[in-house]
TrEMBL record, chains A, B:
It comes from the Bacteria. This is TetR/AcrR family transcriptional regulator. Keywords: DNA-binding, Transcription, Transcription regulation. Residues 6-66 form the HTH tetR-type domain. InterPro entries: Homeodomain-like_sf, HTH-type_TetR-like_transc_reg, HTH_TetR, MT1864/Rv1816-like_C, Tet_transcr_reg_TetR-rel_C_sf. Transmembrane segments: none annotated. Residues 29-48 bind DNA. It comes from Microtetraspora malaysiensis. SUPFAM superfamilies: Homeodomain-like, Tetracyclin repressor-like, C-terminal domain. Gene3D superfamilies: Homeodomain-like, Tetracycline Repressor, domain 2.
Amino acid sequence: MPTPEKTSFSRIVAAGRDLLEAGGQQGLTMQNVAERVGVRAPSLYKHVGNRAALLAAVAEATVDDLVARLESTDGSIEGLARGYRQFAQAWPEGFRLMFSAGAPPEALARVAAPVLHASRQLVGERDALEAARLVTAWAAGFIKMELAGAFRLGGDVDRAFEYGLVGIRRALAGDH
Amino acid sequence: MPTPEKTSFSRIVAAGRDLLEAGGQQGLTMQNVAERVGVRAPSLYKHVGNRAALLAAVAEATVDDLVARLESTDGSIEGLARGYRQFAQAWPEGFRLMFSAGAPPEALARVAAPVLHASRQLVGERDALEAARLVTAWAAGFIKMELAGAFRLGGDVDRAFEYGLVGIRRALAGDH
DNA sequence: CCATCGTAGCTAATTATGTTAGCTATCGAC
DNA sequence: GTCGATAGCTAACATAATTAGCTACGATGG
């Protein structure tokens, strides 16, 4: 190595995640990241390519965490859905980024795997993909609406989530 | 009025919508909007406040169109969901904006109304709000994943949508 | 032990964009 | 016909991303 490295790719990504949660995508500027890791902004380009690549890396790191969170559940539809939601509440900006920014498709596939597995158990091989898409769409949609503040019309959001979960199970129950 | 107006709020919003669909949020710059309506960028501020306000106005106009589209359906869960999806495919960027940008909560409520009505018919007053949230979350989630290209793992997306629709109806059927 | 080479970081500069300040010209009201 | 309000304009500024080119340091090979 030349001049001793004052930072590294992984530190930069970590700083990016912090800033993202603290100030949204707007707060994640190259300047802010640089300041946080202790270099000047142009030096980041020795490690990162550009801001879009950094966002993608942040998204991918977030996916990794989400996958770990899902793997720590009991693998049931309910467990996965609740884990999904808890993760989104803990890392709301990262969760948003996963879908908006160019998260590598490969990464999204990793998130899908546990849901696909659970669906296969429930409805069999033939409809597993469609069932997984039903579950994932509902969970992702619910959570994003919750994060977007679209549930301001009163009612208990937790209750709505559990109600939906019961409905989703019923949707898949009488199937195969 | 002073100096004859060369543009107007509604023209600016219309230009914003065009640019949004053509080039995403990135393509919607004040410069581009100004050029399209035939003035210089700073003149836009005589009509619009700032870019965020313009995005909000574009979002609201999009909501208006969506509501009109939904009101032209038969009002069933299936009709609403398909209308929702068709609208999103016709105006993908506007659809995305509706949730991401600061769409006025009042506007989102207007979209919710037809779904709420259909849900009430199906499950009764007590659970109508929860049921509507189930339907809306699934549809919005499905469509956003479709737009995000999250369905690259093979399978027929249309079939998955119809499968989901059957499931959602079953979820609400055995309820009340 | 020294010469060399590759590279992380730096400063300076460029570009793009949003936004503000201040001027001007024109239209409607009196 | 004069006057006031204001849409649009040019010029300027702030912030951000990014590029160009330099520098210094440390690993490596003689």
